[in-house]
Amino acid sequence: MTDQTLPMEKNVVIKPKLSRDDWIMRTFVVGIGLWLVVTILMPLYAMLSKSVQDKDGVFVGMRNFAEYFSTPALFNSISNSFFIAFVSTIFTITFASIFAFILCRSTIPGKSIFKGIALLPLLAPSILPGISFVYLFGQQGVLKFVLGDHSIYGPIGVIMGEVFYTFPHALMILIAAFSIADARLYEAAVVLRTSRIRTFFTVTLPGIKYGLISAVFVVFTLVITDFGIPKVIGGQFNVLATDIYRQVIGQQNFEMGAVVSVVLLFPAILAFAVDRLVQRKQVAMLTARAVPYEPKPHVMFNRIFFVYCCLIAIMIVGIIGMAAYASFVTFWPYNLALSLDNYDFDLMDGGGWDAFYNSLQMAAYVAVFGTIIIFTGAYMVEKSKGFKFMRGLIQFFCMIPMAVPGMVLGLAYIFFFNHPENPLGIIYGTLPILVIVTIAHFYTVSHLTAMTALKQMDPEFETVSASLKVPFVRTFLKVTVPVCLPAILDISIYLFVNAMTTVSAVIFLYSSDTSLASIAALNMDDAGDVAPAAAMCMVIVATSASVRVLHALLTHGLNKKSQAWRAR
Amino acid sequence: MIDPKNDAQADVYLQVRDLKKNFGTFTALRDISLDVFDGEFVCFLGPSGCGKTTLLRAIAGLDIQTNGSILQGGKDISALPASERDFGIVFQSYALFPNLSVIENVGYGLVNLRSKKEDVARRVSELLDLVGLDDQGDKFPAQLSGGQQQRVALARALAMSPGLLLLDEPLSALDAKVRVHLRHEMKELQRRLGVTTIMVTHDQEEALTMADRIVVMNDGVIEQVGTPEEIYREPASPFVAEFVGTMNFLNAHKGSNGEIMLGDHAIHLTEQEKKKLNGDKVLACVRPEDIAVRNVDQGTANSFDVTVTDLEFLGSFCRATLSYGADKSQINADFSINLVRDKNIKVGGSIRVALPEDSIHIFSQG
């Protein structure tokens, strides 16, 4: 034979030569890694180190923490925060579970309308329910009698607001959990003559178990980290998120702000870790052979279900409607004539219409650049070869934002970008820093959406391209992006709506030139201009809703156009 | 491992030497050496997890081996990435781009190479003609049947006129009937184009009908390399004997004069098999279809009486379970329906069968 022509020794380990594509991909992977380090890790590090320093930046160990825990006014907020989170979670999960169950497992009419209404709170900044409750249950509220002697300003108002705000988040997770039911299990239960009750406990409940746990932790995290609602309707009732704000904005005590942030970070990280653990198990639940469950009509139950859904829908529409109505009322409650006076934002503090235009601009930038960065990053991490450690590390980085409350991230940005020695400090107080912090804040969910879409792509597309000597960039643009377009649109709309409504991460970072609509609403409310605040919230809701409708039309058109190749 | 018969006729196109592949502590391939000749159709055959796909992916540069070398057309490609090697590939999933038409899929690589649009169009229509899809060019993959998708993938793999065609279980996603049809078509196409082809399959029938040579793999090593007939007729190991086709494994002892004792019956062997005798315990292999009944009488060599304990009707033939000797050892035999009728074979009956000398292969058992 021809053995003698072989240049290789038998046990020499082959060092694979990297192709041009490999180099390009790795450059992108490193780039995305650096981006995450600069926009997430380093700010967080700056914040953590600030919590163990004094005002002059000298390391003082745990002294700030000792001070924190010896000040009852401060650490009482911990129990307040947990109390609010526990109670809100119980209410939200109860209401949302029943709602999701009805939408997935009954035959009542108008399910899509109910679902649409239930998701409305996603379009509003979290301060909206707070403002609405002022009009409904406040000193001059139309429904004040309902609360009797209790004041809406305090835990009652906060819990009600949080339930409104977190309801759609829980609902989406629970609908997903309910809709993966396997009809064969129910048929088996019927064949074995199992009662409805027993079927519920032995089939339905185990089926949604993971979704339920996940929803519990998501709601818990949202509530404990929320700033808008307790700020507007909490009154003297302090929680961790408002404490950070008071320490930083009110008292300029940045170190204590950092300490409270660290305290708030703990429950958020814990809830996040449990949620990730649970979701990993959920994946294995649905087998490819599962048969979708088709609900059968049940007249009596359907009536009860319908009434329940109507009640929930009326409450949601009522809360948004109240804010809408109040925004048009000239001077509550003395002059109920309708006018657009409250929309004349330029007459109020808070930034005027410019704030709205800033918001629009920022949301557009976040949607465009965020989608590009996140989707490209996810693609490189998913499709590049080798480089395992780096890719695993980046996957981990991408998960961090989910566990970091917006307030904490915003404060961390102050410490990092406002540091005199940081050359990146030039973007402090500009629109770009608001764009960057918002992208970082909502990175995780977008990244996971992108990953899900990419994992459904045939892993051999890149291989085939390589064998045809086509650079991966062409395949990315010609195949991956068009095929993933629905997911890409989902990411951009998610980023846009969240950028429009967010308050927490940006509240520390705006300057007088870059105020945002949601912050303007908050500040107007703070200054006592509640009606204009409601008006600004409505402008945000209207914008988010329009963009949503646009997105729906676009997706519809896209589906029609791509029907030829998407149909199976 | 290299078939000397073919060596003289053709040049070696692909040389694999001492290939080893580790995934962490798991060894997927150990010391694989193999020559593939120019224009040859080679099948890697083996059960799942035997390393056949790993070997294919190493040859393609998708998962590069830990040690060892690969030469293609005299060029050392051991460490090259896939994009710098010369091959076309068809995957089990076909990996057709769903949003591109058949024409765009087939022309995907060509567009990158040639400047002239007409050249690309001409080549694409040539290729579609070749796989018999000239009228389907404007459709999207999802609008085609599985068999048509497979042919588009084949056309795309051949578009760049690669020196080596790699097929990774290309037929296993198809219906049985389509599979048989395409098997023949692909083989024809390969013969016509003369492109050196390696196909990975776990389906022995596919390997036997399509391959010029079969590489039987198990547990990360090559068990045997040979023509389909060699693999079937002269299995080099009990694994190959069992994996390809159906085989009786009979426990025997070494007898005198180069015979083996099957219970009380002395069985003669060919001269070639006699040389393999070593040690007392012997495993004798014989295919069910080789067991003779017609023209067998007391005087026939290697003949003995058996009892029919079971008859399983399998359509065109019957599989009989026969028992012999004092310990009622069992042996399977395939009898044609004709034979069953003529000889009136039925369960509980007794017949005399013979094991033709040249149908017996033996393996020593330690």
- Strand arrangement within the widest β-sheet of chain B reads 6-7-8-3-9-10
For the largest interface, the chains and their residue counts are: A-B, 44 and 49 residues
Strand content of chain B: 25-35%
Considering DSSP H and I runs of 4 or more, what fraction of the residues of chain A is helical? 55-70%
How does the helix and strand content of chain A classify structurally? mainly alpha
Distance between the termini of chain A: 51 Å
Radius of gyration of chain A: 26 Å
The total of helices of chain B stands at 12
- Profile the largest sheet of chain B: 6 strands, mixed
Biggest sheet of chain A: strands, sense, closure?
Answer: 2 strands, antiparallel
Kindly report the average pLDDT value of chain A: 89
Proportion of beta-strand residues of chain A: under 5%
